[in-house]
Amino acid sequence: NFEVFSKSYATLGSTNAVIPEFKLLHQFPIQTRPYPIPNIAKSFAKKEIQKLLEAGIIEPSSSNYCFPV
């Protein structure tokens, strides 16, 4: 039933019933080399990231971990 699925980030539900636990394999931050986004996809990616930020789904980070979008 399609009515149970959110149609936008703003109406996406959340829960605090489960607290995720991550066990790291190493004591040092993992970093992945950034790669370029094709120009045709850049504006779409920026818009989607902005929507996710505004909806509170993601937040800015300044951690030592680095993964490309």
From TrEMBL:
Transmembrane segments: none annotated. This is Retrovirus-related Pol polyprotein from transposon 17.6. InterPro entries: DNA/RNA_pol_sf. GO terms for biological process: DNA biosynthetic process. SUPFAM superfamilies: DNA/RNA polymerases (SSF56672).
